């Protein structure tokens, strides 16, 4: 009997055979036991061969053992149910008790070539229960649904550990640990309410006034172009100084002492008569020497007139 209604999908049904099934489940009866389940298809070659064995004495030999029954199925084409795996032996005289049955379609090929087999679904028998193995698409769909469920449960918890207020900004708190046996949903709800109440209390206490906002805006307009970098800054807004610029440190006491020393300036001549600009020339100033070999003043040669004797 099936533990679910007939309208449920086959992969969600766990079938248990009738109590009147005699002989138990063994090598020669496993296919007949599977034929009593809703997974069995009466249009398959298994049903055709079974009816032939009941009505034809010559075909009765194929119903005696599973090897003979499956050997006859391999000579036929069409839909069939065949044992794909027998129970594995775990110890002498004991095994897992798990049978694997394939629902498949066999297509005959040319002589000497292997048959073409298409597996439609897989079933396994554990003890007296028959289950249908889920498909790969069903497994992926179930895993994705599980992941989505966990993510949807995490989102409220992650949102409950963070709060924001104008005075403190965004604050993250450690979520409370749930004790063993407690309801996680109740713990998440209580944590959310507690965090919301604490957030409102912090906002009410630390909310800045309008004057604070005006002062912050004024400081930004006056000194907004001054920023901190890797070099530490000392002072206050408007009087920031770099504590170090990568150069050698200066001894402030020596620098202060050097500033206190008087600076000696050169003496300035204040006499008006001694100024070269106001003194009169005496004619005894030193003349510039003549350049040797330079062009001198050309002297004009006097010509003598000779006496003319009259002839």
Automatic annotation (TrEMBL):
Keywords: Activator, Nucleus, Transcription, Transcription regulation. Coiled coil: none annotated. Pfam families: Med6. GO terms for cellular component: mediator complex. InterPro entries: Mediator_Med6 (IPR007018), Mediator_Med6_sf (IPR038566). It is found in: Nucleus. Its main location: nucleus. One of its GO terms (molecular function) is transcription coregulator activity. Residues 267-281 have a biased composition (Polar residues). Residues 267-311 are annotated as: Disordered. GO terms for biological process: regulation of transcription by RNA polymerase II. Component of the Mediator complex, a coactivator involved in the regulated transcription of nearly all RNA polymerase II-dependent genes. Mediator functions as a bridge to convey information from gene-specific regulatory proteins to the basal RNA polymerase II transcription machinery. Mediator is recruited to promoters by direct interactions with regulatory proteins and serves as a scaffold for the assembly of a functional preinitiation complex with RNA polymerase II and the general transcription factors. Belongs to the Mediator complex subunit 6 family. PANTHER family: MED-6-RELATED. Component of the Mediator complex. This is Mediator of RNA polymerase II transcription subunit 6.
